[in-house]
Amino acid sequence: MVNVSNKVAAPVVAQQVAGGQSTQQLEEELSFAVSDNQEIIQELKVVAFENESLKAHIQSLDAYIIDLKAQIEKYIPVRDDPCDKVMSDKINSHKNRAVLKNLFRWESEGLYAFGNKQIMVFLQQGAIKISVKGTNGKVLLEFNEFVDLYTASEKDKPIQDQSYSSPGRSLTSSVKYYISPVKKTKK
What we know:
- By secondary structure, this protein is an alpha+beta fold.
- It folds into 2 domains: 15-71; 77-176, Metal Transport, Frataxin, Chain A.
- 49% of the residues lie in helices and 16% in strands.
- The protein has helices at residues 4-15, 23-71, 82-93, 97-103, 143-154, and strands at residues 104-108, 111-114, 117-124, 127-132, 141-142, 159-160, 175-176.
- A hairpin with a 2-residue loop joins strand 3 and strand 4 (127-132).
């Protein structure tokens, strides 16, 4: 005689998995997990789009700031950077202020671009000392020595964007050319 209760119980046992959950319960949990995962992916796509949109907005604001600064006759120092304050005084009192204002670009504390050159600027006993990248800090020039040595070679070159992004200032376009300031004539 065949035991009927064993035959009926076998399918029920086959549908249960370790831990006492049935396959139907696991399928429901899997369905919820997949649904949640899809929602998270959609939210991440929205956030990624918003992030790109904000990056584009920041770049346009950076370009706007650069354009505004080009219209200002003086070099404006970065707030809370004592070295940049002294650099500002040196640049704004120099006879070639308009040229220097456009060549010096603050990147971070002590790091500047001068045209296409990267330079380190130090304050030593209140005086500006400048080291050109590649000299390993072996050659420190006074501000006027540096300006006399490098301005002529850098002022007419296109300025290549190094894609730096720093607090306070950044470049956004791929190439910028130095444009001679227009001299105002009195009428």
